[in-house]
């Protein structure tokens, strides 16, 4: 499977198993931003040496992939809704990460440690995804 299909060269892309839409569609923007968030978390996880944080981050990535998939599915296709339990689990995991010393040293000036800086980048991408 390739990420280059040569089918998006006209400014349109396919939703999951569905119709082609403009690449400027809000749906494409939303799932693209979540995809960027998943990758940002992956970059932070790749340099993290704490196994518990790595696993929490990986669980967050898996849950976000489900959210992204739901958004990328056309509205007329039957896709199971994201259960509130996933939203609650994401919140719990984020709060667990926030409690780890050194991860969120200083929200106002990121960059005290490479791992915390990488998670800060993911945090800012998450804010964009929320909007």
In short:
By secondary structure, this protein is mainly alpha-helical. Helix content is 58%, strand content 5%.
Give the secondary structure arrangement, pairings included.
Elements: E1 12-14, E2 20-22, H1 26-47, H2 51-72, H3 84-98, H4 114-130
Antiparallel strand pairs: 1-2
Helix pairs in contact: 1-2, 1-4, 2-3
**How far apart, in Å, are the first and last alpha carbons?**
31 Å
Rg: 16 Å
Secondary structure class reads mainly alpha
Spatial arrangement of strands, main beta sheet: 1-2
Mean pLDDT: 85
Which regions are unreliable across 5 or more consecutive residues at pLDDT < 50?
none
Total of helices: 4
- Report the sheet-strand fraction: under 5%
The helix-strand sequence is EEHHHH
Global geometry: globular
Strand tally: 2
Instruction: Report the helical percentage.
Output: 55-70%
* Largest beta-sheet details: 2 strands, antiparallel
Describe this structure in words.
There is one protein chain. By secondary structure, the chain is mainly alpha-helical. 58% of the residues lie in helices and 5% in strands. It is built from 4 helices and 2 strands, in the order E-E-H-H-H-H. A two-stranded antiparallel sheet has the order 1-2. A hairpin with a 5-residue loop joins strand 1 (12-14) and strand 2 (20-22). Helix 1 packs antiparallel against helix 2 and helix 2 (51-72) packs antiparallel against helix 3. It starts with 11 loop residues before the first strand and ends with a helix.
């Amino acid at each position: 499977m390739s990420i280059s299909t040569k089918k998006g060269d006209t400014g349109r892309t396919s939703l999951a198993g569905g119709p082609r839409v403009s690449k400027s569609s809000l749906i494409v923007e939303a799932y693209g931003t979540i995809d960027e968030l998943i990758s940002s978390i992956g970059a932070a996880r790749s340099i993290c040496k704490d196994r518990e944080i790595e696993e929490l981050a990986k669980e967050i990535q898996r849950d976000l992939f489900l959210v992204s998939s739901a958004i990328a599915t056309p509205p007329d296709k039957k896709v199971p809704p994201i259960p509130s339990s996933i939203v609650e689990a994401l919140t719990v995991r984020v709060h667990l990460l926030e409690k780890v010393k050194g991860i969120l040293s200083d929200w106002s000036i990121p960059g005290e440690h490479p791992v915390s800086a990488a998670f800060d980048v993911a945090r800012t991408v998450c804010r964009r995804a929320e909007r």
